Fold this sequence. Notes:
Layout: E1 2-6, H1 12-22, E2 25-30, E3 33-37, H2 40-49, E4 55-64, H3 68-76, E5 88-96, H4 103-122, E6 127-128, E7 135-142, E8 145-151, H5 174-184, E9 191-194, H6 201-210, H7 215-220, E10 231-236, H8 239-252, E11 258-261, E12 274-279, H9 284-287, H10 290-307, E13 308-318, H11 321-330, E14 334-342, E15 345-353
Parallel strand pairs: 5-6, 5-7, 9-10, 9-12, 10-11, 12-13
Antiparallel strand pairs: 1-3, 1-4, 2-3, 4-8, 7-8, 13-15, 14-15
Helix pairs in contact: 3-4, 5-6, 10-11
Amino acid sequence: MQVYATTHRGLERVTAEEIRELGGKLQKYGNGRVYFKCDERLISSLNYHMRTCERIIVLLKSVKVTGLEDIYKEIKDIDFSFIKPNESFAVRSKRVGVHDFNSMDIARVAGDAIIESYQSSAKKRLKVNLDSPDNIIRVELIHDLLLVGVDTTGDKGLHRRGYRVYQHPAPLNPTIAAALIRISDWRPEKILVDPMCGSGTILVEAALVGSDIPPGRVREGGELPFNPKLKILGVEKFGKHVKGCRETLSKLGIDFIKVIQGDAEHLDQHVKEADTIVTNPPYGIRIGRKSKIKKLYHNFLKTAKDILTENGSITLLTPHEKILKSTATKLDYEWSETPIVYGNLPVKIFKLTI
């Protein structure tokens, strides 16, 4: 089967590697999508195990179009006989680029085309159910590229793990957190520290990775077999976030991760050593003036050098590329960088080494 996974733009290589490890035969990737081939059995496994992507979609058609008429024609030519006569469907549309129509127009035209196609072949009118359809047809227009597919994930994307108890004002997407951990090359036998842990998303994702627990098992609910030998530590400046983080960990039955209230600018006062630091520092909206951001980055990276073990590293997400590079240069760090788009914000993942 021809399949594609959706992910954050810039993380295609990370997601592609994860798909390859799970058995998918990679073809190409770009624009937040990874294209590959696999059999039907692997699709359910990918939805259960994938950590860094949002959706798994069986591709029905990929073609260049010029407008709504083309969209209607191309979708009408697709064979939708896989939908059973007693089943319902809904179209979920997305549009990227400049067009003289919107996503709702695409969904309307696509829905009409699907109904007409099915009517012609099966002599029956398909039922539309926008709230809880049996089949979700994804119709995405990326500039002039039309992608039509069957969404095997459902309306709740794979980033919806279901473990979050406390609502942080700026929570980190779990797929981004999982990608940060992959990029960091952390291994379960090593010490991982998040010095600005917020509501604990990186801590939880690390615990899942280190215990080899797939996200699908978390979504199922029930007891999770965590590895109690993992050495994971969280530090957070604000007491309400510390409390919220602990509540999430407690809900999951994680009692081996210690979360302490402390300041990342004085990390050496709270943490003796770390092999891997993975974190999502606060952005300007949360912290205020750029002078505060410069101070935070300088003091954090300076004290982090004192606790990092040999061959240790720091992996972080930031929109403040210039500040990060300037600070890292002054403190003699080397780095690699991965530009991504998080929401509509261009940011970069940096991996720093001494």
